[in-house]
């Protein structure tokens, strides 16, 4: 309010804030969080974190394989954090609060993570095809839901 009075006294026009649709930020943050969750799923498969291990019951005495549980939690955490931080960064970028160097750094990190996931996905899969497709769809759904939750909380906070 004080800036508007000073601008009116000096005769200089005050910059109007850019209004950006919240739904567009929410959709972008969801996509980014979901892509990061899928990237973690693909990279996790290379390290033996098989998401589909929960559906295979080889031994009745084993309740939940630790690798499958870790994969579920890792994908959910990355999806939520990816959606939350992307929504926060997009909201800050619209208002001009993020320096250009920080934007370039974040873009470079995102490209490197997705390139690593693409490289890992191009190799032959160690798990059967149907199980891999179902695990990929489950990771896609889990990542999308958690990214939506993270982006929604970030936008409610802003």
Topology:
Layout: H1 2-10, H2 22-46, H3 66-94, H4 100-122, H5 129-157
Helix pairs in contact: 2-3, 2-4, 2-5, 3-5
How would you describe this structure in keywords?
elongated; mainly alpha; 158 residues
Q: How is this structure best described in words?
A:
This protein has 158 residues and is mainly α. It is built from five helices and no strands. The radius of gyration is 21 Å and the shape is elongated. The two termini are 20 Å apart.
H and E string: HHHHH
Helical segment count: 5
- Our measurement of the CA-to-CA distance between the termini, rounded to an integer number of angstroms, reads 20 Å
Low-confidence stretches: none
Average pLDDT: 79
Helix content: over 70%
> How does the overall form come out from the CA principal axes?
elongated
Classification by helices and strands = mainly alpha
Summarize the model shown:
The chain has 158 residues and is an all-alpha fold. It is built from five helices and no strands. The longest helix is centred in the middle third of the chain and has 29 residues, at 66-94.
């Amino acid at each position: 309010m004080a800036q508007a009075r000073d601008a009116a006294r000096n005769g200089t026009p005050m910059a109007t804030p850019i209004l950006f649709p919240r739904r567009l930020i929410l959709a972008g943050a969801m996509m980014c969080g979901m892509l990061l969750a899928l990237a973690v799923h693909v990279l996790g498969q290379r390290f033996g974190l098989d998401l589909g291990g929960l559906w295979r019951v080889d031994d009745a005495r084993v309740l939940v394989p630790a690798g499958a549980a870790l994969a579920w939690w890792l994908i959910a955490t990355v999806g939520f954090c990816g959606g939350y931080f992307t929504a926060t960064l997009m909201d800050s970028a619209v208002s001009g609060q993020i320096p250009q160097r920080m934007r370039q750094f974040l873009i470079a990190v995102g490209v490197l993570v997705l390139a690593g996931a693409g490289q890992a996905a191009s190799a032959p899969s160690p798990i059967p095809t149907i199980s891999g497709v179902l695990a990929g769809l489950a990771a896609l759904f889990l990542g999308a839901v958690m990214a939506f939750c993270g982006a929604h909380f970030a936008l409610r906070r802003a």
